[in-house]
Each structure stands twice: as structure tokens, then as C-alpha cells.
Specification:
The structure holds two protein chains of two kinds.
Chain A lengths: L3 H32 L33 H8 L17 H19 L4 H7 L3 E3 L5 H6 L9 H10 L6 E6 L4 H21 L9 E3 L5 H9 L3 E7 L10 E7 L10 E7 L6 H18 L9
Parallel strand pairs in A: 1-3, 2-3, 2-4
Antiparallel strand pairs in A: 4-5, 5-6
Helix pairs in contact in A: 7-9
Chain B lengths: L1 E11 L3 E13 L9 E11 L3 E2 L10 H15 L8 E6 L9 H12 L3 E4 L2 H11 L2 H7 L3 E7 L4 E7 L2 E8 L6 E3 L6 E4 L1 H9 L12 H18 L7 H6 L13 E5 L21 H9 L2 H4 L3 E2 L7 H8 L2 E3 L13 E8 L2 H4 L3 H18 L6 E4 L7 H15 L9 E5 L4 H11 L6 E4 L9 E4 L10 E5 L6
Parallel strand pairs in B: 1-5, 5-6, 7-12, 12-13, 15-16, 16-17, 17-18
Antiparallel strand pairs in B: 1-2, 2-3, 2-4, 7-8, 8-9, 10-11, 14-20, 15-19, 19-20
The chains are: A alpha/beta, B alpha/beta.
Chain lengths: 299, 477
């Protein structure tokens, strides 16, 4: 008879051996993989990492054994909220947690990057800066994001047509990503609409480090009837690409906020840039007809 | 910002004619900061007419004059002037739709009932409208399940299957409560449809006008009729007779059906325990209902209570036929409403083509369409793009113009219906590239197919949306 102790020992030995073997083969695999690159040990090339944000959050579904997956996914279509993500104990699954942090990183990038010079050149937009010198100042001093230096104002005056019916400009605001994603489609779309309505359009340009009320300064400087700014929205976890359009009839520095009309949520998960552009053109036409904007404008 | 629309539904069925007036409430459900999204947020039936027998002049002729009187009477009783009605539909169903003057009647009536009340017909549409009116579509959406609704009327049974609120299949059978009519309570046959004679022969019953049937024989007929319904749903093995009783194609739906609901006049008697006279209407309706209600094939299925039975079709016609277009569209309100515009749908594969080829395809299809139909106006329909780029829109606009413009006569409007939210920018692009002066109507969020006809009403909500009614759906896979 083999004693209980002997069996225990045997089992322990076998298990240990299995674990060791597995560990060894894992390590071997790991080294062969990384050795082919000239990377230091333990590092992986970024290119090889999968982009967690590639899957639309509405399609991200990790409930195991769902009663009715199809119905759940249909409900999920109506919200970017993180539902149907499952859990481990009271915590997120690792994948969900990483996705959360990846989405947050997208938002951070949207705020702290700049709109590329190439895009501005391609769109034919010249660039002026507000009184902010860098992103940190832009974040901490909202008052400076709505003012321009004398030189900047001179530059605007020199480059732009005076007294247009509609002055459009583009500004990074809190998301350069939003501008990169939408501007190529929305700007020509608004311009085409305004042209169809026979309106006189000013010279479009770009404002770096801009806050919304900077539009009032521009409106005064250029004597525009309607001023339109396309500006990046504060990004959230749902998207970093969301853009807003603020419009004002005869904008004045210090005017009440209620005189602004806004169309928000312009991105590919919200209103598409081209369709929004056509809508904005119509609103501008209404503003000129009614000589009003914001709450005074009846749509 | 809420707006009420008044809608009328008129159902001229095999045995009964009914009207309902309903109020559809539309509202912009988007926030003040977003692009508007105007939707129908509530529907309420505000008046139901009496249930009238459908007046006939003969076996083949509907009495149009008598129907007109019924309608005028009910408008008066409801105290709703004709001008108040914004939208609605007249539907002519079952055997009545096969009468010689059905078309003429329905067109005159739709004009009488209101400016934008449209004429509809077709067995597929009947089933869908009844299923929506019976609440089957809503139930399937709320519970995320599949529901089949059987609307058993006087002349036909219209079947529609809904999955998650969407129609997935339809069929129509010559099974109804008034396919045999009796002269008296001694069951002396006054009328029997041809199809019912075939069914009777199949079970060895001889029906002849003027001769009496026994209660047993009638029960046998009703049981066989009920079984045909079960056969069509695939609940019991199919027989060759099924093919005979179908008016069109059989159901193709092979997946699970979770619930069954029954509407139509016959449905009222399915689970009715009262032993009142079985033949008080001089037809087989009550017995047919009881027979289906007690059939063995029904025991194993889950039956849900329809929210409407005899009124399902009329409520469906009154409250479920009007749709609202997307809220960013291109319209020319001076030419609205426009009615009975046939749909010419661009093939999905063709939509992928580059501009030049697409315009050739559009032109080709338009030529072919004009050969088949003498109608001039046509609406071009396509799925369109999600998040189109400005360039894509310009290409598409130019392709449409090249394909269509030369084919249109002077002053004829260019009408486009797309599914995806892009109608305003597409309309704008077309306006920008159009050479001739022409009205452009471009609406979205509307799904149509070849064979459909569309009616577009006067704009609502300060010109943001138009009501749309889609008719005579041909159900294709």
C-alpha cells in the first residue's frame, strides 16, 4: 500500500514540474519574440500593441452568458455609457480598466496637442494666437484665451475682408483632435450653403489657444454681421473628436451669453460634419433675416 | 415645442367599415444645443366610429355613395372638420379590395377625407398595419422578441411577423369569417367564396348556394380553416391545400416565433365563453373564432392579448402609417404635398460605384422605369452614407444630377429619399451643381424600396420635417 503522504508528494512533484515547464516555455517564447527587435528586455514595440479604442464602445460587450445579447446590444446603441462590461468581484475586468484609461488618454491628447500646420495650410487658413503662450497658460487663464495682442488684431485686419455678412473662423479650443477630424468636411459644407443663399462671406482663418468669447473681439474688429466659430469641445470619455459651432449676430465684447446660438456634438458618432454644415448655413441665413441670435432667434 | 397632428384611419374591410381619428404628438426631443430631432412621441385615438357593415351594390361592386355617407356622418359625429385632418390613410382590405370599383372608390375617398389622406392597399401592407394596430410590433420591440400577428377578418387572414419592432415577414390567406354567409339560422347557404368551396371539397363537404349545411359540417370547415393557419406558421405539417389558400407567397421566416397575437373581428370570439347564438351574424365568424381558440396546436404556444381586435387595421391605418422625416432636410414647401410618387431605388451595389458609372446606372434605371410606367414623377431612393465627407457628397450630387437631369422635363422637381442622415447636405450639394432651375426635395431617415409609393406632406414643426406615408410595400427578401 502506498501511504497518503507518498501520494501527496508525488502529486506535488508533478504539479511543480508542470508549472516550471510552462514558465520556461513562456520565457523562451518571450525572449525569442523580443530578441528579433533591438528593444531592451521587457519592452514591446508600441506598433505591436492593439489599439483598445478601436472598437466602438457600443459594440464592446463582455457579459458572459447574456440572456438576450441582441437586445442588450440594441440598448447599448443608444448610449456611449459603459454598460454590459461585466466585472470581477466588485471591480472592472482588466480589459475594461485599460479601455477606460485609453479613452482618458485620448481626451488628454485632444487637449494638449496642436492642430497641425499642414492641415491649416491645406485649408488655406492663416493663424493668429490669443494672449496665451502655451497650453498650460491656456488651461489656467481662460481670460487670456479671449484676448488678442495689438499685432494679432492688426494681422487679422490686414488679411481679412472687412464688414462681411458672415465671418467664419476655426479655433482649437479644448480639442485639436476635433478640428483635425471635422474641419475638412464642415468648412466647405458651410461655405457652399452660404454661397447657395447668396451671402457675402469673410476670410476664414485659425485662432490658436482660443476660447469662445474671442469671437466677439473678431466680430467687432471685422465688423461682421454674423460671426461663426468652429471650436473643439472639451473632450470626454466618449469621444475626443466632438466639435461645436457658436454663432452670434453682431457679437460684442461683454454681451450676454444668451445671445449665442450653439450647435454641439458634431462628430461621427453625433451629427456628421457635412450635415451639420448644411444646417449651420441655414441657421446663419435665419440670423441675417431675423437680425438676431441666441434666445432671440426663432427657429 | 409640441405640435399636434390629426390623423384619420379608414378601413373598408370585407365585412365592416370603420373610422378612427387620432392625435399624433410631435416634439423636438434633442437639447437646445443640438441639431433638432423631431419625433412622434405619443399617439392617442380620440374618436372611434361605430362599426358599419361595408355596403355593397352587388357581389362585385362596392357602394361608394353609401360609404361616402358613412364617412360624412362620422366626421360630423366626431365634430372634426375635414380641414383639421393633417394626415391619414384609407385602406381597403380583404375581399373588398378585389371588387371591380375598389380603386376608384378608394381614390375618391382619400380626396374626400382630407388633403393628405392617402389611399393604400395590398395584402402585405394590410398585415403590417393590422399588426401595428394590434400592438404586436410594439410588444416585440419592448420585449426584444418575435411576435406573429394574425388578423382574421371577414375575407382574409393577414399575417405579419415582427422582430424587435421591425416587420420581418408577411403572408395572406383566404381564411375569414364571412367566406360563407347564411340566409337564415337554419344554415342555408347564401354565399360561399370559391376558395372555401375548394377547402370544403378537400374534407368532403359539398357547399352549394341554397342548400343547408349541418352544424357538424360547419365545425369541420372551421377546424380545417384554423389548421391552415397553423400550417402556414409551420406549427403543424403542411398540406397541399395550404398553397391553394395563400393569396401570395408563403411565410419564409424559419426562426423562432416567441408569441402569437390575434386581431380582426374573428379574434373577439376565440376565447369568448358566452354561448350566445353562434350564427347571429349569418356567417361562420363566431364559430371560426371558437374553433381556432380551442385548437390543439394553440395549446403549446404563448398567446398574447392584442391591444385591438376588430379595430386593429383601422387603428393601424390611423396611427401607424404616418412617419416623420429626418429633421435636417432639403424641401421646397410650395410644391408639397405630393402624392403617389413611385420609388426608384438605386441598387446597393451601384451605390458603391464611382460617380460616372453611378450616373449611367441611374439614367439606365430611369429609362427602364419610364418604359414600364407612364408616370412622370419618380423619387430616387438610396441608402446613402454614414458620415459622408464633403467630397463624397459633391461626387454623389453630381452623379445624381448627370443621371437624372436630362430625363426630367422643365419644372419637374428632383425628389430624393435617403436612409442615412445626409439629406440637407446632399440637397445643398445638388442645388450648388444644378444647371437648370428646378425644385429639389431631399429627405432622409426614410426606408423605402422598389415597388413602394411615397406621399410627402406639407412641412411641420416650422418647416423642419415633413410627414411621409409609404404605401403598397412589396415584401422582398
Amino acid at each position: 500500500m502506498i501511504s497518503e503522504q507518498v501520494i501527496k508528494d508525488m502529486v506535488q512533484q508533478i504539479v511543480e514540474k508542470m508549472v516550471m515547464d510552462k514558465k520556461q516555455s513562456d520565457e523562451e517564447n518571450y525572449f525569442t519574440e523580443t530578441d528579433t527587435n533591438s528593444q531592451p528586455r521587457g519592452c514591446m514595440d508600441d506598433e505591436k500593441l492593439k489599439d483598445l479604442t478601436e472598437i466602438k464602445i457600443q459594440d464592446y460587450f463582455t457579459v458572459s452568458n447574456p440572456e438576450n445579447k441582441e437586445a442588450y446590444l440594441q440598448l447599448k446603441e443608444s448610449t456611449p455609457a459603459r454598460v454590459g462590461i461585466w466585472r470581477t468581484g466588485p471591480r472592472y475586468l482588466t480589459d475594461t480598466l485599460l479601455r477606460f484609461r485609453a479613452d482618458h488618454a485620448v481626451a488628454m491628447d485632444a487637449v494638449f496637442t496642436y492642430v497641425s500646420e499642414e492641415l491649416l495650410e491645406e485649408m488655406g487658413l492663416f493663424s493668429v494666437n490669443t494672449l496665451c503662450h502655451d497650453k498650460d497658460e491656456y488651461m489656467t487663464r481662460p481670460d487670456l484665451g479671449r484676448k488678442f495682442s495689438e499685432e494679432s488684431i492688426e494681422r487679422i485686419k490686414e488679411k481679412c475682408i472687412k464688414s462681411p455678412q458672415v465671418q467664419i473662423y476655426v479655433s482649437d479650443g479644448l480639442s485639436s483632435t476635433a478640428i483635425e477630424a471635422n474641419i475638412k468636411d464642415i468648412l466647405p459644407s458651410i461655405m457652399q450653403g452660404l454661397k447657395n443663399y447668396g451671402l457675402k462671406i469673410g476670410t476664414p482663418f485659425f485662432v490658436k489657444h482660443g476660447r469662445v468669447p474671442a469671437m466677439d473681439v473678431i466680430s467687432e474688429v471685422l465688423d461682421a454681421e454674423v460671426t461663426v466659430v468652429l471650436i473643439g469641445e472639451r473632450p470626454g470619455l466618449a469621444t475626443g473628436e466632438s466639435m461645436s459651432c457658436y454663432m452670434a449676430y453682431r457679437g460684442k465684447v461683454g454681451m450676454p451669453e444668451s445671445r449665442r446660438t450653439v450647435i454641439s456634438n458634431i462628430h461621427k458618432g453625433g451629427t456628421s460634419a457635412t450635415e451639420a454644415g448644411a444646417h449651420i448655413a441655414q441657421i446663419v441665413k435665419e440670423m441675417i433675416e431675423q437680425k438676431a441670435s441666441g434666445l432671440d432667434l426663432k427657429l | 415645442m409640441r405640435e399636434n397632428i390629426f390623423s384619420v384611419g379608414i378601413d373598408i374591410g370585407t365585412s365592416t367599415t370603420q373610422l378612427v381619428f387620432s392625435k399624433l404628438i410631435i416634439e423636438n426631443t434633442a437639447s437646445i444645443m443640438a441639431i433638432p430631432r423631431i419625433q412622434i412621441i405619443d399617439k392617442e385615438v380620440v374618436y372611434r366610429s361605430d362599426i358599419h357593415f361595408t355596403p355593397l351594390l352587388s357581389e362585385t361592386q362596392i357602394d361608394g355613395e353609401a360609404i361616402r355617407k358613412i364617412i360624412e356622418l362620422e366626421y360630423r359625429k366626431a365634430e372634426i372638420p375635414f380641414e383639421r385632418i393633417d394626415t391619414g390613410a384609407v385602406i381597403i382590405t380583404g375581399e373588398t379590395a378585389r371588387k371591380e370599383n375598389a380603386n376608384e372608390i378608394i381614390n375618391t375617398l382619400s380626396g374626400l377625407a382630407g388633403d393628405f389622406v392617402v389611399a393604400t392597399a395590398g395584402p402585405d401592407l394590410e398585415g403590417i398595419i393590422a399588426g401595428k394596430g394590434a400592438g404586436a410590433a410594439k410588444f416585440s420591440k419592448e420585449r426584444s422578441c418575435t411576435v406573429v400577428n394574425l388578423d382574421i377578418g371577414g375575407g382574409t387572414t393577414n399575417i405579419a411577423i415582427f422582430k424587435n419592432g421591425e416587420v420581418v415577414d408577411t403572408a395572406c390567406l383566404d381564411i375569414g369569417g364571412r367566406l360563407i354567409k347564411f340566409e337564415d339560422d337554419q344554415l342555408k347557404v347564401a354565399y360561399a367564396s370559391n376558395k372555401i368551396k375548394i377547402l370544403a371539397k378537400d374534407i368532403g363537404v359539398d357547399i352549394q348556394v341554397g342548400k343547408r349545411l349541418s352544424v357538424d359540417e360547419v365545425e369541420g370547415l372551421c377546424k380545417r380553416m384554423g389548421d391552415i393557419l397553423a400550417e402556414s406558421l409551420g406549427m403543424i405539417p403542411q398540406t397541399t391545400l395550404l398553397q391553394e389558400m395563400l393569396t401570395g407567397t408563403p411565410l419564409k421566416w424559419k426562426q423562432k416565433i416567441d408569441y402569437i397575437s390575434f386581431s380582426g373581428g374573428v379574434a373577439d370570439y376565440m376565447f369568448n365563453k358566452s354561448s350566445a347564438s353562434l350564427f347571429k351574424y349569418g356567417d361562420i365568424g363566431i364559430l371560426l373564432g371558437k374553433s381556432i381558440g380551442s385548437s390543439s396546436w394553440l395549446e403549446s404556444s404563448k398567446v398574447i392579448q392584442a391591444s385591438e381586435t376588430i379595430g386593429a387595421t383601422v387603428v393601424g391605418a390611423g396611427t401607424h402609417t404616418t412617419e416623420i422625416s429626418g429633421s435636417t432636410i432639403t424641401i421646397e414647401s410650395s410644391i408639397l404635398p405630393i402624392k403617389n410618387i413611385p420609388i426608384l431605388r438605386v441598387n446597393p451595389e451601384d451605390e458603391e460605384l464611382v460617380s460616372d458609372q453611378l450616373s449611367c446606372k441611374i439614367a439606365e434605371r430611369l429609362d427602364w422605369f419610364r418604359l414600364e410606367n407612364d408616370q412622370q414623377l419618380v423619387a430616387l431612393a438610396m441608402k446613402g452614407l454614414k458620415n459622408p465627407s464633403f467630397q463624397q457628397i459633391q461626387q454623389l450630387a453630381k452623379a445624381i444630377i448627370r443621371g437624372v437631369e436630362e430625363k426630367l422635363r422643365d419644372g419637374e422637381p428632383l425628389i430624393i429619399v435617403v436612409e442615412n442622415d445626409m439629406a440637407k447636405i446632399l440637397g445643398q450639394g445638388i442645388h450648388a451643381h444644378l444647371v437648370s432651375k428646378r425644385d429639389v426635395i431631399c429627405i432622409d431617415s426614410i426606408k423605402v424600396d422598389n415597388g413602394d409609393y411615397i406621399d410627402i406632406g406639407k412641412p411641420l414643426a416650422n418647416g423642419k420635417v415633413v410627414p411621409v406615408i409609404i404605401k403598397t410595400l412589396v415584401f422582398n427578401y
